[in-house]
């Protein structure tokens, strides 16, 4: 089964990124395998070919009519009542429009028609309506917490970045922790970890994962079902289903399955930078996990090595897209991710105590004020470190790969010595 997932994912990768169609090659291999009576491999290529055909249909399927767009973000510029509307069209292409005097008229997720510098409301999708229902109690909660971190909570809970200042955005980017300001795989994984252990008292594993999946679905709706959140949700749900089916987790297989699902559901997002970075980051984690199991890496070295491998695996995308690299993120993430976990735990406790116990709510509110302060101070400190300019990323990548090979060589020597002993 692992081979099926990997071959299918590689076929889709070849079709989309290399612009080559491997359907005929798959059919030839399938016929050869049928002739030599290798039924399992023949079935593998048969399923893989079927997935390729479905992917072709999905690629040519237009999700919106001409001049119809779905709003992905709204930015109030504050100059002459200008509002910037960020949106995607029927084939997933991103667009930006600027209008005057439309503040609070439209919501993220709305389908609109934009033509001749005029915008017309078309419809509000069901998931957007659900999100607005969820937002009513969340907004009351956000208005009750400290203004020192309310804008950050708003981003983490609803994926609404409108109150994040440009200074904070630049600060977090320089420190290599900008991903904390956009709800993505990190946030979903931390939510998964928190509730996985909270629900551990439930002995029935299927029931436990069913409740956990329900929580993740609700978080997906709350954060607007944007491509990054949907991508993170698909990854985690694939992980859960794989664990329930096979009793263990194979990260490479789940990565391949989630890629296949994502490619078929949202084929036009495959070219986005965020998509490539997230999947390559998980690939880096998968490699790191295999190395940990092989060489028994301790709990201090493993997180550092993981963040390093993530940086190396994502560096080519940064280089291609003319972006800079923050090598200090290897250390800044080791500090910020545990702080983010603590922030989310306290936020959940704050939500629970908001209507039940005012004193506890105020206590948790105070704790989160200090946690956010720690996150921001971490960003300030690490933003002062030098970055690797885009034209130097190739040198960084070569040196990093050589370092990884050297580390593996030393670990192999150590393992061989231990085996002999």
What portion of residues belong to β-strands?
5-15%
Please state the average pLDDT score.
89
Oligomer: single chain
- Element string (H = helix, E = strand): HHHEEEEEHHHHHHHHHHHH
Shape: globular
Structural class: alpha+beta
Could you estimate the helical fraction of the residues in percent? 55-70%
* Main sheet makeup: 5 strands, antiparallel
Q: What is the CA-based Rg, rounded?
A: 23 Å
What's the layout of helices and strands?
Elements: H1 2-17, H2 23-35, H3 39-59, E1 68-76, E2 82-88, E3 94-100, E4 111-115, E5 118-123, H4 126-144, H5 150-158, H6 166-174, H7 185-198, H8 205-222, H9 227-246, H10 251-265, H11 273-295, H12 301-320, H13 329-353, H14 358-382, H15 393-420
Antiparallel strand pairs: 1-2, 1-4, 2-3, 4-5
Helix pairs in contact: 1-3, 1-10, 2-3, 3-10, 4-5, 6-14, 7-8, 7-9, 7-13, 8-9, 9-10, 10-11, 11-12, 12-13, 12-15, 13-14
Your description of this structure?
It is a single chain. The mean pLDDT is about 90. This protein folds into three domains: about 1-60, no CATH class; about 70-125; about 135-270 and about 325-390, no CATH class. Strand 1 (about 70-75) and strand 2 form a beta hairpin. It has about 425 residues and is of the alpha+beta class. The chain has helices at about 1-15, 25-35, 40-60, 125-145, 150-160, 165-175, 185-200, 205-220, 225-245, 250-265, 275-295, 300-320, 330-355, 360-380, 395-420; strands spanning about 70-75, 80-90, 95-100, 110-115, 120-125. It is globular. It is about 65% helix and about 10% strand. The protein has a five-stranded antiparallel beta sheet, with no helix packed on it. It is built from 15 helices and five strands. Helix 6 (about 165-175) crosses helix 14 (about 360-380) and helix 13 (about 330-355) packs antiparallel against helix 14.
């Amino acid at each position: 089964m692992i081979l099926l997932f990997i071959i299918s994912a590689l076929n889709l990768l070849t079709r989309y990124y290399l612009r080559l169609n491997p359907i005929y090659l798959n059919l030839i291999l399938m016929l050869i395998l049928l002739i030599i009576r290798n039924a399992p491999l023949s079935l593998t290529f048969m399923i893989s070919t079927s997935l390729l055909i479905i992917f072709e249909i999905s690629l040519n399927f237009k999700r919106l009519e001409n001049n119809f767009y779905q709003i992905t973000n709204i930015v109030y510029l504050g100059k002459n009542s200008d509002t910037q509307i960020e949106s995607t069209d029927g084939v997933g292409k991103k667009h930006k429009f600027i209008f005057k005097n439309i503040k609070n008229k439209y919501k993220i997720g709305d389908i609109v028609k934009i033509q001749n510098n005029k915008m017309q409301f078309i419809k509000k999708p069901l998931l957007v309506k659900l999100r607005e229902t969820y937002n009513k109690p969340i907004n009351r909660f956000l208005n009750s917490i400290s203004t020192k971190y309310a804008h950050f909570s708003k981003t983490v809970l609803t994926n609404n970045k409108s109150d994040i200042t440009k200074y904070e955005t630049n600060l977090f980017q320089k420190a290599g922790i900008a991903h904390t300001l956009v709800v993505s795989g990190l946030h979903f994984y931390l939510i998964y970890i928190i509730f996985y252990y909270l629900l551990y008292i439930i002995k029935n594993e299927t029931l436990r994962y069913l409740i956990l999946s329900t929580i993740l679905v609700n978080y997906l709706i709350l954060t607007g079902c944007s491509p990054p959140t949907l991508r993170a949700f698909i990854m985690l749900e694939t992980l859960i289903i794989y664990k329930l089916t096979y009793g263990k987790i194979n990260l490479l297989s789940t990565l391949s399955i989630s890629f296949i699902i994502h490619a078929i559901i949202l084929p036009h997002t495959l070219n986005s930078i965020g998509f490539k970075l997230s999947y390559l980051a998980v690939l880096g984690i998968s490699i790191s996990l295999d190395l940990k199991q092989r060489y028994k890496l301790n709990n201090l070295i493993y997180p550092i090595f993981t963040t390093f491998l993530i940086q190396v695996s994502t560096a080519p995308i940064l280089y291609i897209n003319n972006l800079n690299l923050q090598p200090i993120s290897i250390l800044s993430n080791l500090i910020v991710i545990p702080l983010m976990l603590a922030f989310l735990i306290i936020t959940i406790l704050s939500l629970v105590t908001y209507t039940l116990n005012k004193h506890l709510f105020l206590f948790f509110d105070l704790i989160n004020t200090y946690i956010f302060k720690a996150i921001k101070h971490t960003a300030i400190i690490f933003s002062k470190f030098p970055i690797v300019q885009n034209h130097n990323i190739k040198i960084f990548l070569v040196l990093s790969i050589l370092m990884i090979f050297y580390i593996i060589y030393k670990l192999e020597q150590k393992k061989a010595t231990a085996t002999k002993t």
